[in-house]
Amino acid sequence: MSAPAAAPARGDRALGEALFPYVLRLADTSLVLGQRLGEWIGHAPALEEDLGLANLALDLIGQARLLLTYAGEIEGRGRDEDALAYLRDAPEFRNLALAEQPNGDFAHTIVRQWLIDGWQLEVYEGLTGSADMRLAAIAAKALKETRYHYRFSSGWLLRLGDGTAESQARAQQALDSLWRFTEELFAPDEIDERMAEAGIAPRLGAAAGRWERRIGQELRTATLTLPERRPHPWYGKCGVHTEHLGHLLGEMQHLQRTYPGVSW
Amino acid sequence: MSDPLPDPSAADWPLFEVFIRSRSGLEHKHVGSLHAADARMAIEHARDVYTRRQEGVSIWVVRSADIVASDPGEAEALFEPARDKVYRHPTFYAIPDEVKNL
Lengths: 264, 102
What we know:
The complex is a heterodimer of chains A (264) and B (102). Chain A has 264 residues and is an all-alpha fold.
């Protein structure tokens, strides 16, 4: 398909150079999280949850496809969604490090989902007003999906946290273990700043306050404790990943790497 | 060792019956059943299990245990007496041409 809607960034080369990695951040976070959720298929605690997690995964992969296609057009080197998904190595991925963390137990998966859903809510909401019409349209579609994801994950967070002693302990353990990866969610770097200045992306600083208030309130209801903030060395959105991403990509990319261009 | 696991049959989520309205103006129809811990979760599960292909615009769920059903053993007494009363069917009336939508 051709690309009728050119980004306003086109023509401004420097801005385009920042837009490409910015769109990759959104795309890769959805792609990697969707791949992780797919690992649950056939293993979820109940058949109904199996389908529920698969639905989330499909929504996320759908978002990734739209965003990767757009990223490829911005880059202008002829890479399509498949080339970007299957033929990049881990350091070229720009997903949040949180998204690549292993599934762990069900509580771990739910807490990871809930943290990222809250981030996506803020980002997609902001992007619906983007000066980049293509991103605004993708965000409007993704926002509807994300609202359901958040309903799903926050519902489960409450059930697990305010559930049995066992489920509460597991949810708290998951939160304690994953919290260190949340620093980069709302910490703007140069790319985020440039996107915000151009009116393309929302300001992360303002979104951070809303996100913190919301998760604080929900954690209290779920009788869980917010861990202390501590800096961490992983910045997935800058291409600095934990070792888990390589293994995930190994599985995800294996077929295309072994049989380039294969389809069925 | 940790505590023994609870009896899995006792830990099972209750069964809910699911009714979907396929589009506005139509009635809700029974589509199946599923397990959920409570009504909210039952709605979410119904959404995930039964509306993946745009089957509906509205969902009802009800606990299966709350449905009162007729006894199959009483089918004769309940339904047989209607068999020879064909005059109850509205087929003995001449419908005027002016009447639409009857």
